[in-house]
Amino acid sequence: MAQKTIAGIAVEVSSEGYLENPAQWTKEIALEIAGEIGIDLTDKHFEVLEFLRKEHAAGTQLTIRKVGKSGIVDIKGLYTLFPGGPLKYSAKIAGIPKPVSCV
Amino acid sequence: MIMGTRYLPDFLTFRLSDNFKHMKKLLILGGGTAGTMMANKLHHVLDKEDWNITIVDKHKTHIYQPGLLFIPFGIYTRGDVEKPKANFFPPRVNAIFSEIDMIKPEENKVLLAGGRVLQYDYLIVATGTDIRPDQTPGLSDSLWYKQIFDFYTLEGALALRQHLKTWEGGNLVVSITELPYKCPVAPLEFAFLADAYFSEMGMRDKVKITYVTPMSGAFTKPVATKMLNELLQEKNIEVVTDFYIEKVDNEKRCLVSYDEIEIPFDLLTIVPMNMGDEVIARSGLGDDMNYINTNKETLQSVKHDNIFVIGDAANLPTSKAGSVAHFASDVLMENLMHAIEGRPLTAKFDGHANCYIETGYGKGALIDFNYETEPLPGTYPLPGIGPFGLLRNTRINHYGKIIFRWIYWHILLKGKELPVESEMTMAGKRRISL
After folding, report:
1. Catalytic residue list contains A102
2. Quick one: closest CA in A to B182, which residue?
3. pLDDT tens per residue across span B264-318
4. B422: which of A46, B243, B253, B327 fits an S-S bond (Cβ 3.0–4.6 Å)?
């Protein structure tokens, strides 16, 4: 765990840069992490981020399939929004831990 | 002594049941690794006079699943991995071989196919997980079991064995469709064993092996990923990460990802999407992959106090593997007894998993981890046989895996004590930074 200042806020992050405490997340933090990855956030992105945060808070194990069934975006659409690593990037920008799924 | 009723004709079974209406009923759904272990453990602690134990499974044959990996390479045959399930149930347990139609938790009953109704006081769900090639477009199509194989079923492993006997080489793609899947290290082991097999056949130069995963590395945790990546590189196995399969193009013989990248293959061995049993979905008990929402520490169903879940059927954030079911079985037994006695559930499962990784050429690696601690290097203590090397490629680890088949049939399934603790220990492990 390490301290990092994102969008002017000191937050705890994992070794891979995921927020340790989702409550520290702000939209400004999202914009800055997305910028580092090279993604310009739109309203659609934020809809996905809100979904991820809500599901994470409810204790759901997140998978791409689950996001694809959210009604917000299908899996192909999720790839278009977060190219290269839809779940790992969207989770990082949403300020939740990296989804583990299986180990 | 009361004879097990499973050998009796139906009319006698019903009469016996009538006579024992006052008995409490424990029902186990699924007679695989987890269900069989629970039947064996609980038969010792639930009084014969008070408790009727019934186990239901649709298949009569128990498959030693870790052995399926060896079949395609001719190391094991069918006879090495199959035994009748009934051999492993204690005599007092009623074994019913039937499809399950539905669980009705509000009425404490289970409907079997054909209309038979089983009441329960406590229910243990151990219905496991299965491969679902039907969930990926083009997967179970014209190339299925011709150039595309799974090795998670006996049929798939045997068909692949036949295919490999005459295969002349080309692009071998080993791929994973979706997380979570059973035994996370199995496809890696398959790639390692394939490298050794083709080398021994003198045709390694004719085979390009590519490992395709939706994960960001060979494994999800950094320390194990580093060690496994080095092994993959050493064995000249190419790795494609973050590849999420949308469909299989049968005409072009390639995998296609959601971001439209294509990977051609001549031979595809794939871990299809895994899903829990359809009965879980029919009963409204599962998530979108038919896994039951289970308290990760107590193993009790989140929705129903008299339902416990063990093994792959649960949505626990740990591996879907026999070792996990084994370590969970003691916790489940303790908590079930507490529930029966009206006491709080104090036993806590830590997500402990322990997996041998066959790496070929008579060697193997071992990983040991839980919900909180990722696989670390060091040694794993095992009185009498070990210590085994953790995250190291050694001969003793390979022998551990080979001996394990005997342990599985004779000790583990029968619910006997093994000299390993359910809870993961840090003894021998080294924390390292990358």
Report:
1. yes
2. A102
3. 999 999 999 999 999 999 999 998 899 999 999 999 999 999 999 999 999 998 8
4. B327
Record: contact B179-A63, CB cut-off 8 A: yes
- What gap in Å lies between CA A47 and CA A67, rounded to an integer? 11
Q: Which fold has domain B132-273?
A: FAD/NAD(P)-binding domain (3.50.50)
Which residue does chain B place closest to A88, by CA atoms? B216
Q: Which residues of B touch A102 (CB under 8 A)?
A: 179-181, 184, 220, 319-320
Mark yes or no for CB contact B319/A101 under 8 Å.
no
Task: Say whether B189 sits in a helix, a strand or coil.
Answer: helix
Task: Give the pLDDT confidence of B367-406 residue by residue, as tens digits.
Answer: 998 888 888 888 888 766 668 888 888 898 888 888 899 9
> For residue B267, what are the CA distances in angstroms to B87, B135, B168, B220?
38, 20, 10, 26
Range(s) for CATH 3.50.50.60 in chain B?
5-128+277-340, 132-273
Nearest to B59 by CA among B104, B5, B102, B100: B100
CATH for B5-128+277-340, options being 1.10.357.10, 3.50.50.60, 3.40.50.2000, 3.40.50.720? 3.50.50.60
Selection from B265, B199, B261, B209 nearest residue B238 by Cα: B209
- Give dist(CA B121, CA B252) in Å, integer: 55
List pLDDT tens digits, range B187-206.
999 999 999 999 999 999 99
State the complex-level ipTM.
0.80
Q: Which chain B residues touch A if contact means CB-CB below 8 Å?
A: 178-181, 184, 214, 216, 219-222, 242, 244, 246, 258-259, 287-289, 315, 317-320, 353, 369, 374-375
For chain A, domain boundaries: 2-93
